[in-house]
Design a protein that fits this description.
- The complex is a heterotrimer of chains A (296), B (329) and C (321).
- Chain A has twelve helices and no strands.
- In chain B, the strands form two sheets. An eight-stranded mixed β-sheet of chain B has the order 6-7-8-3-9-10-12-11, sandwiched between helices. Chain B has a four-stranded antiparallel β-sheet with strand order 2-1-4-5, covered by helices on one side.
- In chain B, helix 5 packs parallel to helix 6.
- Chain B is globular and about 65 Å long.
- Chain B starts with 5 loop residues before the first strand and ends in a 12-residue tail after the last strand.
- Chain C has 321 residues and is α/β, with parallel strands linked by helices.
- Helix content of chain C is 30%, strand content 23%.
- Chain C contains ten helices and twelve strands.
- Chain C has an eight-stranded mixed β-sheet. A four-stranded antiparallel β-sheet of chain C has the order 2-1-4-5.
- The radius of gyration of chain C is 21 Å and the shape is globular.
- The relative contact order of chain C is 0.15.
- The chains are: A mainly alpha (296), B alpha/beta (329), C alpha/beta (321).
- Chains in contact: A-B, A-C, B-C.
- At the B-C interface, helix 6, helix 7, helix 8 and helix 9 of B face helix 5, helix 6, helix 7 and helix 9 of C.
Chain lengths: 296, 329, 321
């Protein structure tokens, strides 16, 4: 008997990519983000290679005589209130926004994911204890929570990261708990139990891989939120301190000069906006690609 | 068959689904006729195209990806495929109505069942007062064996069998001439299935409604239908009366299906299943679609789609083996 | 069945499983007793909500029994600790109803089949080659083409998925398998293929089955004995042929007559039941079928009706016999 032709192997990743690339908007978002990542990486390489010479000479070097000069051939984004090249500052700032956002979200995804999985899987008292604590965290506006944490622990890069990570934990715990609850009653979990699989094996090998899709989407959108939070904290003066370039703090210090030079506020603002937009459309695209049932 | 008796005539209908994975050949030049008042059983396995045919008659094929490639569906003389959406809406629920498989999801959960029946009555009768329509809805409920005072209750207050009765009441509310029942009892327990089927059969003979009963259960067909059409890969491969199909099956697939059912009446040690699987509808084999699984297949079978051979007034089969017995029509 | 010579492989005594719900206590399995001998099949038949699936899962202790005892090869299963239970799971396995829901969608065919071997430490992660060889053997055994090793469940049809479910159980070389409606989600022609496969496996490996189904015709030619359940209780138990020829409980009779027979000349005397199935929440004493029973009298609802042995091996719980 001739067996029907076996289709070429499709893993979740290839299947998702096949659907994702059809969404042109999401694809654009991804290209924007990849370029940002490349920029960030290359600035790090440049810094290492030149021993911060470029950074010292072009990014933080002040030139008060030319302060607030508008965009020109030499400085396409113009100069800021201290006469620093905005283009260079924008580029050097990418790494802070992007990587800090990513790291913060990675931390909260892991913590929130585990807490959510444990709460959902064990249920009852464990569930109540974990989720009520998450509710308490959720009841405080995340920006306020982050501000409070930074204010308490002092302003530093690590503290900003921790603050943002903590404020996002409840979101991820909730997402994962919800999908664990639907997955844990499925027969394949029962099959694993019938085979004698341990709880940790069931959580890590059966439940978590199957609840990845909403988590990935939530994380992508979370990075956008985290970048905004970092920018916001910096804007309030609680985040990254000058002269280190960071979009939020650039925007913050520029606001006093908005009447004298429009470009110094508009350009960091646009930078933040484009990044967030790219992340959001990519997140939406990922959601549709990971769960085709939502669309069509 | 006299043309005046003819209620529905499906002529060489081809429906494809154009998906990312290729073209799904759901129906391939299928032809079928139904008489007024008769019950035709449509039997086939998953993917045979039963539901596509039912939805095609009502023009409910989602498009995209569904495309009606060719053919005519004549209902009381009018070609349904040539009607516009407004004309079609007048036919749906009015002269043709449909019962879906899953009673759990076919009802609106936030609307009392009485109101749901009234909605249908309202959409299809003119100049009736609210009271008259409500009365009619209650009558329908009584007719399917539900006390009228339950008309204010919501679907979740009914059991599965009761919900299916409500759905039947909705389907019959406008006294249709054709009822399409797509696996109406598959989701129900056996004892409840028996109740519901008995009720449908009694109602349809009372209202003189023709019924297209789609099922995978040959037992249900044998107990409830007048004629049977066996479908395989988007085509009717055998058509006949109950006696033709159950006592004198000609197509190897029909024989295989009958051999696959565990029998209640006979003692057999082993079943004789059909080998292999349904063909992939995006990649149908050339010629007879059943040939790769057929123990009698020869070169002829893969050369071209077999013609329809008429064995008697009522019995038709699409298999080259029948050629020896009859002359080509 | 000569009890003095052969000792049963599995013995269930007065097994009860109650669930606490918002509406009250659900008596899913209420005082069920039976035994199965090695190499035999016990069919458990009933409609939705009769507790047949709960029964299967409680025997495997996927649900903890509320009361009663389970003995497997004279070892009491009910009292075992987690460690001993894990070891026992090699001998007692389950095939699930829904071949779509019972396979982890993120694991390939070979991973799924190999998983049970890894969990039970029959192979270690380092023995990749041996493990793969064993998986291929098993796939061949249940009629799965070797080229499907890297496929994911969603790429396969129901019949093939059910074969994976069977292969993963066979990997452990069990003695006793609970088959929870293994074919009811499949098409007729595929259903017959799987039933035949299960029968072959029983003949070759001497497996013992507890075959749960709602479809009496499926168990007829497979089972030695059949238990009929209604709302958590056993209403009748008899050797297969006896049950089909001489059903005594009115519910068994109704169930048998409700099955549509694929023969247009077969005239049935339908015992059409009134009413619907309910659920056994806080049940009243007496026969739970009495409300729908055409022969019900006052005696039926006064107190619980015990099972009575009307002929050797034929038990009925009904006031009429």
């Amino acid at each position: 008997m001739k067996l029907p032709v076996v289709k070429k192997q499709r893993t979740l990743a290839t299947e998702t990519w096949r659907r994702f690339k059809k969404n042109k908007l999401a694809l654009t978002g991804m290209i924007v983000l990849s370029s940002l990542v490349l920029i960030a990486l290359s600035t790090i390489v440049i810094d290492l290679a030149t021993d911060n010479a470029v950074y010292n000479n072009y990014v933080i070097k002040q030139n008060l005589r030319m302060r607030l000069q508008g965009p020109s051939k030499d400085h396409i984004f113009g100069l800021d209130e201290f006469g620093r090249d905005i283009f260079m500052r924008m580029i050097w700032a990418v790494r802070y926004s992007l990587f800090m956002g990513t790291i913060a979200i990675a931390l909260s995804t892991i913590a929130g994911g585990l807490l959510g999985a444990i709460a959902g899987y064990y249920g009852k008292v464990t569930d109540n204890a974990i989720m009520r604590f998450m509710d308490v965290l959720l009841a405080i506006p995340s920006m306020l929570l982050a501000t409070a944490i930074v204010a308490a622990l002092g302003t530093s890069l690590t503290n900003v990261l921790i603050a943002i990570a903590i404020s996002y934990v409840p979101t991820f715990a909730r997402t994962v708990r919800a999908s664990v609850l639907t997955i844990k009653d499925q027969e394949f979990i029962e099959a694993a139990r019938a085979m004698g699989a341990s709880d940790s094996r069931i959580i890590f090998k059966y439940i978590l891989p199957n609840s990845m899709a909403p988590l990935i989407v939530q994380a992508t959108l979370g990075v956008a939120g985290a970048i905004l939070s970092i920018a916001g904290l910096s804007f309030l003066g609680l985040g990254i301190q000058p002269p280190t370039p960071e979009w939020g703090s650039m925007l913050s210090s520029a606001r006093a000069y908005i009447r004298e030079g429009w470009h110094i506020t508009v350009i960091p603002g646009l930078g933040i906006m484009i990044t967030i937009l790219a992340l959001n459309v990519m997140g939406d695209g990922l959601r549709d690609a990971l769960d085709p049932r939502l669309k069509n | 068959m006299k043309p005046s008796d003819e209620l529905l005539s499906i002529e060489k209908v081809t429906i494809h689904y154009e998906t990312e994975d290729g073209i799904v050949h759901a129906l391939n030049e299928i032809s079928l006729t139904m008489k007024k008042g008769e019950t035709l059983g449509l039997v086939g396995e998953t993917g045979a195209g039963k539901t596509t045919l039912a939805k095609g008659i009502l023009r409910l094929i989602p498009s995209p990806p569904g495309v009606i490639k060719q053919g005519r569906i004549l209902f009381e003389g009018t070609d349904l495929l040539s009607l516009n959406e407004n004309q079609m809406r007048a036919i749906r629920g009015n002269s043709i109505s449909m019962i879906f498989q899953d009673p759990m999801t076919s009802l609106n959960p936030v609307m009392p069942v009485g109101d749901q029946i009234m909605e249908v009555v309202e959409a299809h009768t003119k100049n009736a007062s609210k009271e008259e329509m409500y009365q009619q809805a209650c009558d329908m409920l009584e007719m399917v064996g539900i006390p009228a005072d339950r008309s204010h209750e919501y679907p979740h207050q009914f059991s599965g069998g009761m919900k299916q009765r409500v759905i039947i009441a909705i389907a019959l509310a406008c006294n249709p001439t054709l009822l399409i029942a797509d696996e109406p009892t598959t989701a129900l327990d056996v004892t409840i299935q028996a109740q519901v089927l008995d009720m449908i059969t009694a109602l349809k003979s009372r209202l003189n409604t023709a019924m297209l009963l789609i099922t995978h259960d040959l037992g249900v067909v044998a107990q409830n239908c007048d004629r049977v059409a066996i479908m395989y890969a988007g085509q009717v491969i055998e058509l006949g009366t109950l006696q033709d199909i159950f006592k004198r099956p000609q197509h190897p697939y029909t024989k295989g299906l009958l051999g696959s059912i565990p029998s209640l009446t006979k003692n057999v040690r082993r079943l004789s299943p059909i080998k292999g699987l349904m063909p992939d509808p995006t990649d149908l084999p050339p010629g007879c679609a059943f040939a790769p699984r057929c123990q009698y297949a020869s070169d002829v079978c893969t050369r071209g789609v077999p013609a329809i051979y008429t064995l008697s007034d009522t019995h038709q089969v699409r298999c080259v083996l029948a050629e020896q017995e009859v002359n080509h029509e | 069945m000569n009890d003095t010579i052969k000792r049963p492989l599995l013995r269930v005594e007065h097994l009860k499983k109650y669930f606490h719900t918002n509406k009250g206590t659900l008596h899913a399995v209420d005082d069920v007793s039976f035994s199965i001998h090695k190499g035999e099949t016990l069919g458990v038949v009933g409609e939705s909500g009769c507790g047949k699936s709960t029964l299967g899962r409680t025997i495997l202790r996927l649900h903890e029994p509320t009361d009663g005892k389970i003995f497997f090869e004279d070892q009491e299963v009910t009292g075992l600790d987690a460690h001993a239970m894990k070891a026992l799971r090699r001998d007692m396995q389950i095939i699930f109803q829904d071949p779509f829901a019972s396979l982890n969608p993120r694991m390939t065919v070979s991973e799924t089949i190999g998983e049970s071997l890894l969990i039970q430490k029959l192979f270690t992660r380092k023995q990749g080659v041996e493990l793969r060889k064993r998986v291929t053997e098993l796939m061949d055994f249940v009629g799965l083409s070797a080229k499907l090793v890297n496929s994911y469940p969603h790429e396969l049809d129901g019949g093939r998925r059910q074969r994976i479910g069977i292969a993963r159980v066979l990997a452990l070389d069990p003695k006793f398998v609970v088959c929870d409606e293994p074919v009811s989600a499949l098409d007729v022609s595929i259903q017959a293929q799987i039933l035949n496969l299960m029968q072959d496996l029983q003949d070759e490996l001497g497996l013992t089955y507890l075959f749960i189904t709602h479809d009496l015709s499926v168990v007829k030619h497979l089972s030695n004995n059949i238990v009929v359940m209604y709302l958590g209780q056993m209403v009748e138990m008899a050797p297969s042929l006896v049950l089909f020829e001489k059903p005594l409980h009115p519910y068994t009779q109704a169930l048998l007559s409700a099955i549509p027979v694929p023969d247009p000349d077969y005239a049935v005397d339908r015992v059409l039941l009134q009413g619907e199935l309910t659920s056994p929440i806080n049940p009243q004493p007496g026969c739970r079928f009495a409300k729908r029973c055409p022969y019900a009298s006052e005696a039926c609802t006064k107190h619980d009706i015990p099972l009575k042995e009307v002929a050797p091996g034929h038990f009925v719980a009904c006031t009429l016999v």
